[in-house]
Amino acid sequence: MPARLTENVPGMVYHCRNERGRSMEFVSKGSRGVTGYAPEALERGDVSYGNDVVVEADRDELWTEVQGAVSDGEPFYVTYRIETASDDVRWVRERGRGVFDDEGELEGLEGVIIDVTERKRLETELEEMVGRISDAFYALDDKWQFTHANDRAEELIDYQDEGLVGRNFWEVFEWATDSKLGERYREAMETQEPTTFEFYYPEPLDAWYEIHAYPSETGLSVYFRDVTERKERERELERSERRYRALVENFPNGAVALVDEDLRYRTVGGDPLDVADVTSEEIE
Q1: What is the pTM of this model?
Q2: Intra-chain end-to-end CA distance of the chain, in Å
Q3: What are the φ and ψ backbone dihedral angles of 264, each rounded to 5 degrees?
Q4: pLDDT, tens digit, for every residue of 90-140?
Q5: Are residues 9 and 112 in contact, defined by beta-carbon separation less than 8 angstroms?
Q6: Looking at residue 230, what is its pLDDT?
Q7: How confident is the model at residue 264 (pLDDT cuts 50, 70, 90)?
Q8: At residue 259, does pLDDT exceed 60?
Q9: Structure confidence at residue 63 as a pLDDT band (50, 70, 90)
């Protein structure tokens, strides 16, 4: 790539040999901003990018990932740490590909390396914040891929124990496509309006959840909690009230009153005139 075309590319554009030391044959001026080293220092070999700049703990994984992609004829996208000329440890993201001659022989690597330290800091802060949320929480991007899920979310809905991050929501929960859950999620994304509702997750979860979904242009943030116990209590109270109402309405002598927790009459049965000079309508 001509030097004049690389000057406006953010980050460090490079062409190097495919070896662990990453001997640089061309480095753009952006190397100063990323590594702190002048292009000439890397091109002459005064500083070895692979052996001096890349943090030692990340070197083997970087080599493995790059070689795997190159051998498959695919571009590579890798994130790792470097140590700059001023001894600062920075996070970088590299996008590159193998360069092959007419006979298909690998000549080297080329690509671009950008500083993503600030992005990594924000991602770490977000992960810590998500971990402190007492409710279950997960985030989906605009392709419906899980990008975050706290421990509580995985505990409640990752019933296959395969992890959620990186997977597609509709593939994990195939049944959700034609469900109320899917309908409310799609509506939230289309209208960009938050939504709150209760939903029963079928087997194998077999649980009720209170769900709060907040859409944005980049995806959907979902907070939810297991309310199965509360729903069961509500159903038991409804059954109990039906039993008592039946008893009240069929009580043969005197009056029976059913009151709520604030001592307000819910229903009155029997004949209150047998015990007081009032009617059931007046009591209720």
Answers
A1: 0.50
A2: 87
A3: -90, 140
A4: 999 999 999 999 988 999 999 999 999 988 887 777 666 655 555 789 999
A5: yes
A6: 83
A7: low
A8: no
A9: very high
Say if residues 220 and 213 touch (Cβ distance below 8 Å).
yes
State residue 2 phi and psi, 5-degree precision: -55, 145
Domains of the chain: 3-115 (3.30.450.20), 121-226 (3.30.450.20), 230-283 (no CATH)
Are 54 and 80 in contact, with CB atoms under 8 Å apart?
yes
Q: Per the omega criterion (within 30 degrees of 0), is the bond before 202 cis? A: no
SS (H, E, C) 188-215: HHHHCCCEEEEEEECCCCCEEEEEEEEE
Could you give the percent of the chain with pLDDT greater than 70? 78
Cα–Cα distance between 279 and 276 in angstroms, integer? 8
* Least confident window among 5-9, 103-107, 173-177, 229-233: 5-9
pLDDT on residue 233? 79
DSSP β-bridge partners for residue 108:
99
Q: What is the three-state SS of the chain?
A: CCHHHHCCCCCEEEEECCCCCCCEEEECCCHHHHHCCCHHHHHHCCCCHHHHHECHHHHHHHHHHHHHHHHCCCCEEEEEEEECCCCCEEEEEEEEEEEECCCCCEEEEEEEEEECHHHHHHHHHHHHHHHHCCCEEEEEECCCEEEEECHHHHHHHCCCCCCCCCCEHHHHCHHHHHCHHHHHHHHHHHHCCCEEEEEEECCCCCEEEEEEEEEECCEEEEEEEECHHHHHHHHHHHHHHHHHHHHHHCCCCCEEEEECCCCCEEEEEECHHHCCCCCHHHHC
Alpha carbons 276 and 271: distance in angstroms, whole number: 9
The predicted pLDDT at position 159 comes to: 79
